[in-house]
Amino acid sequence: MSAKRSSINRPPTPDVDRDRENQEPTLQEIINIKMIESGEKERLKELLRERLIECGWRDEMKSLCRKKGRNNVTVDDLVHVITPKGRASVPDPVKAELLQRIRSFLASTAT
Amino acid sequence: MSLPNDDNMSAHSQLSSHFFEDLLDSIIVDVASECHRVARLGLDRNFEEEEEELRLSAQARARVADSSNNGETNSKYVVDIFGQTHPAVANEIFECMNCGRSIVAGRFAPHLEKCMGKGRKARLKVTRSATAAQNRYTRGSPGSSYSSYSNSTGMNRLSNGASSGVAGEEYSNGSFEEL
């Protein structure tokens, strides 16, 4: 993946030239689809969102955004501002809880 | 960030971490998007207040660094960390929840003592009334005059100085009794 600034977390666009896309999807993709279809992904996201609000993480991120100022900010700017600190400052218990849930899900849908 | 049994389940753990990061990134984008919206629409009413507070705290810091406030006292008034002064007697006015009168905050404690029953007169007042909270009585007191009001909403004004602790009291049914 090239180091373009425009996006840091968008997955690479599937390339039609690559054969792989027509062959079996990866385990990751399979699980991702299962997670979405069963609604678990949405539940996990809501759980994570709730925990991050409770522990004040969201407020920290918002105040970081405010510091950036109000003039001509773009969403990408703000994403870049928040992401390093955001990823690093998730409290351990929150992360542990989510990982635990995800692992249970993986175990329950083990192929 | 190391998890126990990481070696045994490294594939699973990697997968879990991947999904976690995925969820987290998604939430980060949500937060950024909302902040972007607030910033562009000028919805953040607190934004100017924050700048104001930052300015005030910088000011206060400068004032502290400045030696004009020796030992924090300045004649009669003490200057606090925000540079505000406070009068000796707090001068906000509240309504007493017991009798409904308007009381100056600085005189609230003595008022409550009398109103709620520490003193002799207040205790008499309570025991003589069946519905003490509802009814009002005027109290005679040596040397002070009182006046009575009729009022449908129950809000009172003290006619005498509050420092004496005695004043005309309000009554809802229009009758009064002298102690």
UniProtKB/TrEMBL annotation, chain A:
Superkingdom, taxonomy of origin: Eukaryota
What is the official name of this protein in its record? Transcription and mRNA export factor ENY2
State the organism of origin. Citrus sinensis
Give the lineage: Eukaryota, Viridiplantae, Streptophyta, Embryophyta, Tracheophyta
UniProtKB/TrEMBL annotation, chain B:
The keyword Nucleus belongs to this UniProt entry's keyword annotation: yes
Tree of life domain: Eukaryota
Keyword Zinc in the entry? The reply is yes
Checking InterPro entries in the record gives: SAGA_su_Sgf11
Gene Ontology CC, one term = SAGA-type complex
The principal localisation class reads nucleus
Which residues fall in a compositionally biased region of kind Low complexity? 136-154
| Pfam families recorded | Sgf11
What is this protein identified as?
Answer: SAGA-associated factor 11
Native source species:
Citrus sinensis (Sweet orange)
